């Protein structure tokens, strides 16, 4: 039963990834109930909301990424340099802290359900997050961070 549920999660992630994944290398990780995710330098990451409870790693991701789980923290880094078309898809459930290394691009597919997400971002990185809660952005090094709120509906601007 557990294998069937995990396979369903990866199938769901595959359908959310879309047709573009055929042209790029897609690596999938389920972060389960992990609240703190750290992303190492030079990765392209897409966060996808999911109700997964367990931390799992797709076979291709296991071969190319070093994923370390310590308590309620998950660290993701490449074992070797990945191609520019490679994307790491991370299924998240209860994210509250995101630490982003240098030259990392983070986007979301869907809207992350969170009250608050603290984002620590390093030089040369960008994070475009869609969430139901508040985002607190902090510079991990001596740079400045700018944050811009984009309202989902035009009525919210009035």
User: Cα distance, first to last residue?
Assistant: 50 Å
Compute the number of helices: 2
Ranges with pLDDT <50 over ≥5 residues?
1-12, 15-22, 154-158
Estimated structural class:
mainly beta
Strand content is 35-45%
What is the share of helical residues? 10-25%
Question: How confident is the prediction overall: mean pLDDT?
Answer: 82
Structure summary, number of beta strands = 12
Rg over CA atoms, rounded to whole Å, is 15 Å
- Name the shape in a single word: globular
Tell me what you see in this structure.
The chain contains 2 helices and 12 strands. It has a 6-stranded mixed sheet with strand order 4-1-7-3-9-11. The termini are far apart. By secondary structure, it is mainly β. Residues 1-12, 15-22 and 154-158 have low confidence and may be disordered.
Describe the protein's topology:
Layout: H1 2-17, E1 26-30, E2 36-39, E3 44-49, E4 56-57, H2 59-64, E5 65-70, E6 73-78, E7 87-92, E8 97-100, E9 105-108, E10 116-121, E11 126-127, E12 134-139
Parallel strand pairs: 1-7, 2-6, 2-8, 3-7, 3-9, 8-10, 9-11, 10-12
Antiparallel strand pairs: 1-4, 5-6
